[in-house]
Amino acid sequence: MPIIKLNNTYLERLMKTDIKTIRDNLPMMGSEVEREEENQTDVQFFPNRPDLYSAEGTARAMRGYLGIETGLPIYTVKPSGISFSIDPRLADIRPYLGSAVIRNVHMDNAMIESLMDLQESLHGAVGRGRKKVAIGVHDLDMVKGPFSYIAAERSTAFVPLDYDVSMTMDQILAEHPMGRAYAKIVEGMPLFPLIHDAKGNVCSFPPIINGELTRITEETKNILLDVTGTEPRAVMIAVNIICAAMVEMSATIESVDVDGTVTPTLAPSVRMVSVQDCNALVGIAITAEEMKDLLERMRFGAEIVDTDHVRVTIPCYRADIMHDHDIYEDVAIAYGYDKIPAVPPTTFAVGKPHPVQEVYSLVRSILVGFTYVENTPFTLTNSNVSYRMMKRPENPAALHVLHPISEDQTIIRTDILPMLMGSLSINRSRELPQRIFACGDVVENLVTYPKIAATSIHPAADFSEIYAVVDAFCRVLALPYEVSESVDPAFIDGRCGDVYVDRKKVGVFGEISPEVLGAFGLEHPVAAFEMDLSCLL
């Protein structure tokens, strides 16, 4: 979960109350105060509430929770007369753009830091490290509309942020710190996204870096916001959150015409919810009137329809509200979790361990006894790590994710060994030897079954070491196993074996091949094994 740094003096100014009151009540809002310093408070918020990732958003929510200012925030958006055109060639590169004009800005250093921190927090939470969404803020008075979002030649040059010399876009990717950090997002593209004004002045090279010309300073009075990305809803979430935060700074918002579409509107949405359903889910007994008051404390608009229904108006920045239960969660927060009575369950049952969990517990104790440390890799992975980097053919039985959120998580794992190789790669700077294992579910042809894998990396790791581990593992489990020569391409030919139980192949072990070691950036030998644990069930 992201940790947001809040300036105490600025937060008190926005909240109209003291920092002690704020700190005491933040945990009741579903956050956690990580660090309290004289000038700063570090707070950890849940990833589903990106609207709280700034002092402005936190203050807006806390004013409602404390009853200082309740109800739906009203946002007025006037047309700016400024327009954006989008190059059709961006359709397969980075096609979506949202924008706004923010006027009457009077920012001090604390406000600038808050805006920049919000920008970077949204890059992580909403933008998936800028892949999905990238945000640019510019001093509008330094450029002139209309603006163009184009697919530019890689040789196009401008002065990037924090530099005083002009650089081509290729040079920025190779030499600028931000270019090196995010070059992977645009690598392989024949043309690069670029935003410039009517005079050809470059505002931004999204998702990499802004131009130095439009740097935000304490002298900035008017701001041009651009948000580019690959998913339109995520783009508008970022636009709405930033605009709502700027209103807390007493700025005014104006819309921009983006190829005939007006953005933003900052319009709220409406949902009808049931008081009875809320009471049943949360475990409380409130009336429609009480529910209305609680929702207004959470900065919703609320109108009683009848004794069981409340019409809820949801502010534009609350992108997390996707179900009635999300509304009921906010009712519970405003009501106070500490005030919800603890009630014994009405049903009685005797629990027992699941057979698979008993197997996992057993094999964990064995591997820990062999001095291996447990690793807990993700269930989602991708074909590149699971097959190509392991030099194995792609498994046609793999279950693919229909709408993956990133290219790193496109399939459900069919093997655990590739995940451990990835862990070794991440920790290759750590001291050796490293001996790790993982056990868990894998899926093939919609069938879930348990597997275990273990790896050992150090200069002397070899076939004999891992054979001894497999032999001891099977003997402790009383598995009558046999070994035959393996042809698994992930291992060195002649230094690997297949494990059979009751004439059925259940595993493989040996020395990892140099090609696989190279793919994961490993410089030392790795001995590993992986086994299907279904035979223990």
What structural keywords apply?
537 residues; alpha+beta; 15 helices; globular
Distance separating the two termini: 37 Å
Secondary structure tally: strands: 27
Oligomer: single chain
Major beta-sheet overview: 10 strands, mixed
Average pLDDT, rounded to a whole number, is 92
Global geometry: globular
Number of helices: 15
Q: What is the share of helical residues?
A: 25-40%
Short description:
By secondary structure, the chain is an alpha+beta fold.
Give a verbal description of the structure.
With 537 residues, the protein is α+β, with helices and mostly antiparallel strands. Helices cover 29% and strands 29% of the residues. It is built from 15 helices and 27 strands. Strands 4, 5, 6, 7, 10, 11, 12, 13, 14 and 15 form a 10-stranded mixed β-sheet that branches. Strands 19-22-23-27-26-25-24 form a 7-stranded mixed β-sheet, sandwiched between helices. It has a 3-stranded antiparallel β-sheet with strand order 1-3-2. The radius of gyration is 28 Å and the shape is globular. The two termini are 37 Å apart. The relative contact order is 0.09.
List strands and helices in order, with pairings:
Elements: E1 3-7, H1 8-15, H2 19-25, E2 32-36, E3 40-44, H3 55-65, E4 77-86, E5 96-103, H4 109-125, E6 133-139, E7 147-152, E8 157-158, E9 167-168, H5 169-175, H6 177-186, E10 192-196, E11 202-205, E12 209-210, E13 223-229, H7 232-248, E14 252-258, E15 261-263, E16 269-274, H8 275-282, H9 288-297, E17 301-306, E18 309-314, H10 324-335, H11 355-369, E19 373-374, E20 380-381, H12 383-388, E21 411-412, H13 417-426, E22 434-444, E23 447-457, H14 463-476, E24 481-485, E25 491-501, E26 504-512, H15 514-519, E27 526-532
